[in-house]
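mind reviewing these tokens:
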Amino acid sequence: MDDVFKALADPSRRKLLDRLFRRDGQTLSELCERVAMTRFGVMKHLRVLEEADLVVSRRAGREKLHYLNPVPIRLVHDRWVSKYAAPFAAALSQLKSQLEGTAMQNDVQVYQVFIRTTPEKLWQALTDGAITKKYLFSETLHSDWKRGSEWHSTGPNGSRDVEGTVIESDAPNRLVLTWRVLWDKELSDELSRVSYLIEKRGEICKLTVTHELSEAPKTAKQVGQDGWQLILSGLKTLLETGQPMPMPATSVA
């Protein structure tokens, strides 16, 4: 967490994060616009933010796009904000964003988290329904996880909440799924795509989750509030401590 606090201590870096919060997926040239810094200065600050995992990059053709990764900040929140104070803090933060018009909604959402585990255990945690219900808002996943197979999740009452198709399955490295929300009728006509990339880094794994929502604007607004941050924080806590993280009473992602 030291790298996170170091990165956030600089006002110029906070401004870059603010710009990515307002519009994610910007190129270096776009981030250099209307800033009192040289291109080299922006690159230097981006490097610090990337080292702290607050910014992640993704190639799109010849362009390199930069995305805000809120997971490290969420982990700081989970460490120092009690489960009793969290709902009040979240409600006030959401109200402030709505009043200021800064609520995050992006066509592509990218999240990264580092977890002390093995690729095999991480893959199992992502695909084994007996494990997912411990961190995924009590949702149990069902599938054989073969390419072309259907998958779905069920809630504690047996309701079918999310469903889709397995597009790619390369255990324990990469899993790509279509993703359709069923718990809300207004979202059920939208189809998005979720990719999980597992990279082994010594004794830890780097997990990158990319949610592509260009055809699902209402779903983007729903999952961009807290969903993936809570899921990945809960996954990390479970794998590293063996104990589930207390979760707020809310729907999946």
About this structure: The beta strands are 55-60, 63-68, 108-115, 140-142, 150-154, 160-170, 174-181, 192-201, 204-212. The longest strand covers residues 160-170. The radius of gyration is 18 Å.
